[in-house]
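Now for a chain:

_____
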Amino acid sequence: MASLNEIPFVKGHGTANDFVIIADLDGQRVLTEHDVQFICNRHTGIGADGVLRVVRTAHVPEFAEQARTAEFFMDYRNSDGSTSEMCGNGIRVFVRYLDAVGLITEADVAVATRAGVRMCHMNSDLSITVDMGPATQPETTAIPLIGVKDELWPAVPVLMPNPHAVTFVESLEEVGSLEVAPPVLPPTIFPDGVNVEFVVQRGPNHVAMRVHERGAGETMSCGTGACAVAWASARNYPEMDITSERGIQVDVPGGTVFVRELETGSLSLTGPATLVARGNVLLPT
């Protein structure tokens, strides 16, 4: 067994957006795109929407300056092996893991990410609130058009900072399968790809969504997507108040999260995070 490429893991999820967590505190392990694809494969691997590598920020040269405020860096990989700037569900699972294994002892924790340092708070009801930063829009006057069933539907472009195209529809079922990325025109708006969300209003301060995540396909939830959806919904539906005490309720196929716009302009994301398994994975040699 000593010759096998065997590494320990923990698996968790945030509203059914699931992740494999790999501890590499000293930054010694190289996870290739093939490694991540193998781990995330639901038939021949463990199965997940992505991988969270836990590493001390000081050991990540390109982000080492964040070590002054955040001890740990969330190295997030999509299931196809590509990287993303942030993951709202992933960071909650990341914090739950840090707490479970004793790497943190306080309710408030700063986490370094490719999008910058994000502040997180573990609530008494076991949910976790993340300051996700402000929503912005690309510097373009073009309106993204999403291709669905031979039709082009207008979308709202939102950066969280992951790119999103938010489309308001009458029914979430009418968009069909989202396993394959819907075409987005013009492609120059999102040169690095985009997450596509479809949204319906359920009631006052209440929406539901489905999402195709770039690099992962349709997922049960997307944290940055929920933030983009809430931000766009507050501007599409005048009666919605994203600054209210609980903000906007966003139902995803895997559960419910809440998004609130703070006085600073940042969006806070609150939702559950659960650890479900641990073990060892044998990577192909």
Remarks:
- The chain has three helices and 19 strands.
